[in-house]
Amino acid sequence: MSKFPERMADVLGTPPAIAYLDHAATTPLRPEARAAMLPWLGGTFGNPSGAHAVARAARQAIDEARDTIAGVLGCAPNEVVFTGGGTEADNLAVLGVPAARPGPVLASAVEHHAVLEPLEVVGGRTVAVDRRGVVDLDALASALTPETTLVSVMTANNEVGVVQPLSDVARVVRRHAPDAVLHTDAVQGAAWLDIADVAAGADLVSVSSHKFGGPQGVGVLVVRRGTPLQPRAIGGGQERELRSGTHNVAGIVGMAAALAAKASARDEESTRVSALRDRLADGLLAEIPDAVETAGRSAVLPGTAHLTIDGVESEALLFLLDEAGVCASAASACASGAQEASHVLAAMGVPLRATAGALRLSLGWTSTDADVDRALDVVPTAVAKLRVAAGSLR
Ligand code: PLP
Fold first, then answer.
1. 114 CA closest ligand 1 atom index
2. What is the DSSP string of 224-284?
3. Residue ranges around ligand 1 (CB below 6 Å)
4. Catalytic site residue 334?
5. 3-state secondary structure string across 211-222
6. In ligand 1, which atom is closest to the CA atom of 154?
7. Rounded to an integer, what is the distance from CA 212 to the centroid of its chain?
């Protein structure tokens, strides 16, 4: 242990144990990522765009990371475009395709705001989902035209965890709009799924390092050969002119190490964490009357338990959970921390009253039985307390 945390503990006292159940927001750095990054945060440095020995060493580190990432994501190394995270990858896809090839743009109604806001900028339309949050393939087919230039359907949803049938989406898109580019936001999916397999039919694939145990602020857009795409960041011409800017070398090598570690632990982690998630969700459903599991459990990411709890307000519930050492979320994290009505739940047709009591508990690679025990102890008590308070106010 380093001296710094010890002295912090002297000052602040031993921190209370926390059950961290917000891995979909961000997950801890994997040791493999930390080890890979450390040299680049100390004596080793270099601008990979340069020509001398120091620059070439940085370039080599980036090239090796690119090879690793390409191997895991199932693309060629020169199809990996490094970005400053998932949001930037999504923006590049949704703004960059219609800039290169103008035409109608479609996206599922449950996409992250990193897709929906650029969609609005390019005048795109959303496609309906069913009650589980799965994109409606008939609605998609009738919205497509031969002129459609881009379709964006996420690999898995960040709020309710539902996994989209991407190969069916690709089939429908190819049939009705053969020239359209298919983008998938695999930011949540990459933490659990084999992206090389599930996103094989997509032309553009966004991933974000901090969701699978790499550092924050770095990501990838896979750009398959021949995909029309105009850059957003222009200047130095890095990343085959698709994303200018000096590379984040430490971030990129950390991301590659995290992705490789994730890939080799994927099956074991999925089995272990989905068992924890099942125990958590079953326990909460048994203990909390009128709690409903929003998207069920089949075709949902192993780490996600999303409930709606009648008669409580998410914000008040999250406050009580936080006080009791349980970190959870109501919807996706947003910059202000304020809770807004969820567009995902609205698109799924969840009634507004139920939406008000949304709770997302998301587990990850460091989750343990102790986290589940803590949540099973704390959440039902907090809900009961809020319901009593709400009853006495009526
Ligand atoms: N897309 C999805 C589905 C996400 O869950 C997130 C982050 O919550 C993002 C995009 C944005 O990624 P980043 O935090 O790397 O900008």
1. 10
2. -TT-----SS-SS-TTTTTS-S---HHHHHHHHHHHHHHHHHHHHHHHHHHHHHHHHHHHH
3. 85-87, 90, 112, 114, 154, 158, 185, 187-188, 208, 219, 332
4. yes
5. HCCCCCCCEEEE
6. 3
7. 9
**Which of 87, 154, 206 to mutate to test ligand 1, by most ligand atoms within 8 A of the CB atom?**
87
Q: How far is the CA of 158 from the centre of ligand 1 (A)?
A: 8
Outline where DSSP puts E strands in the chain: 19-20, 80-83, 105-108, 125-127, 150-152, 181-185, 204-208, 219-223, 291-293, 304-309, 326-327, 358-362
What tens-digit pLDDT sequence spans the chain (394 residues)? 333 344 444 544 455 589 999 999 999 999 999 999 999 998 899 999 999 999 999 999 999 999 999 999 999 999 999 999 999 999 999 999 999 999 999 999 999 999 999 999 999 999 999 999 999 999 999 999 999 999 999 999 999 999 999 999 999 999 999 999 999 999 999 999 999 999 999 999 999 999 999 999 999 999 999 999 999 999 999 999 999 999 999 999 999 999 999 999 999 999 999 999 999 999 999 999 999 999 999 999 999 999 999 999 999 999 999 999 999 999 744 444 555 789 999 999 999 888 999 999 999 999 999 999 999 999 999 999 999 998 866 5
Residue of 23, 88, 110, 112 to mutate, ligand 1, most atoms within 8 A of C-beta:
112
Please tell me the number of Cα atoms within 13 Å of 117 on its side-chain side: 8
What's the gap in Å between 211 CA and the centre of ligand 1? 8
Give me ligand 1 centre to Cα 192, in Å.
15
CATH numbers and ranges of domains, the chain: 3-29+266-393 (3.90.1150.10), 31-261 (3.40.640.10)
Active-site choice (334, 388, 389, 390):
334
pTM of the model: 0.94
Ligand 1 nearest-atom number relative to CA 111: 3
